[in-house]
Amino acid sequence: MSLAPRPQISTKRLVLTGLVICLLLAGIVSLWASGNPDGLEFVAERLGFSDSAGEHAAGASPFADYGTAGVENARLSGGLAGLVGVVVVAVIAFGLMHLLRRHGSRDDG
User: Fold this and answer.
1) CA-based end-to-end distance of the chain
2) How many other CB atoms sit within 10 Å of the CB of residue 105?
3) CA 53, CA 94: separation in Å to the nearest integer?
4) pLDDT value at 107 more than 70
């Protein structure tokens, strides 16, 4: 049994591929997300206590309720909110990785 050489994938290429997949899922696949209430809302409506819930602290934010304020088309609104969410999470994650790498290089030297 011979071991064939495995193709090498760089970390940068792997991360960029993952980011593109996340953007596609958030921006395109989310267009077909269910418009029905999620599990907790469904149970609250079914058992009759949905009126007891108060307004969410972030209810007035531009991306509340999986949508984008000011965008009338519900599918486009949800897709745009997903894209913005992926970009925000990626910026935070890459920023933290950059800071940790800088901090790690100081400890090494």
Assistant:
1) 44
2) 9
3) 36
4) no
Between 90 and 41, name the one with better pLDDT: 90
Strands (E), 3-69: none
Helix axis angle for 74-108 and 11-27, nearest 10°, is: 160
Cα–Cα distance, 36 to 40 (Å, whole number)? 11
Closest among 79, 69, 96 to 29, alpha carbons compared:
79
Q: Collapse the DSSP code of 58 into the 3-class scheme (helix H, G, I; strand E, B; otherwise coil) and give the result.
A: coil
Amino acid letter, 78: G
Predicted TM-score (pTM) of this structure:
0.71
Q: How many residues does the chain have?
A: 109
R_g over Cα of the chain: 21
Three-class secondary structure of residue 66 per DSSP: helix
- Distance CA(29)–CA(37), nearest Å, equals 18
Distance (Å, rounded) from C-alpha 47 to C-alpha 39? 12
